[in-house]
């Protein structure tokens, strides 16, 4: 059973204090203890003018902030830390549990579970773009929820315009995330999710994916994937190679097991992440499938997004370190689905 609301609040406050202490340590002494990544260092160097090679729009945005005198690595670090520790958990809870007063335990469970997400916490310790993208992703879901609940056509159009604008920003920050959201919206608006068996949908999905690969329509993703062998030579490269249409399905399933579900036990950290991140994900997927009849429109959208976004990055990525940050959105989608289904199931059973 879910603990008492006061216990959940207390645990969240403790987490908030601990995160503040870690963020303070990172600001004063740096992140060497936590394995500071090259991305954050690169962003800072580009924003400061130390390097001129532009990698993505996030670096360009930080450079623009610096040009107008509004950039500070410590300031941005504090901003990201606040987003990760406060904004993201409460926004996720507001989406999963629409009526906080009726379901306070479920609401605070979501807040606490998102707060305990280790990968999200790590990327909130510096000027990585992942936490901001996560916040924008949740805003898309929030406005989509508003869209589904709106009755006036004018309000629907206004909400949809805001929603698409945020998707556009996400496209600039990480193209395949923005594309995945737009494709998911198109699928939901045009087709929805029919009441077919999940096994039938799964088989159709695998057959379609294999056909696209055999027809050469996934070559751009394969080309992007091949860059990992050159640009990221290191221990976290997986060397999962798609080189035959006959072996495409087994190879893709291997990529799913290793990158998405975390069946990668090279060291203590990888094993720990499997226990604290992958096991809850697997349990959440099983729960969602077993209670599919209780899904609402938003949950269906999250499932469509989970498949589309996961397919794109699982085909285009071959690095475990990158996979850990890419799958953040898949993990959050499943968490929101599980809680939404649980609340809906609980509400229906009480009638």
From TrEMBL:
Keyword Hydrolase: no
Tree of life domain: Bacteria
Annotated transmembrane regions: 12-34, 46-65, 77-95, 107-125, 131-150, 157-190, 196-218, 261-286, 298-316, 328-344
Signal peptide: none
UniProt keywords, alphabetically: Membrane, Transmembrane, Transmembrane helix
The protein's name in its UniProt record: Uncharacterized protein
UniProt source species: Pseudomonas syringae
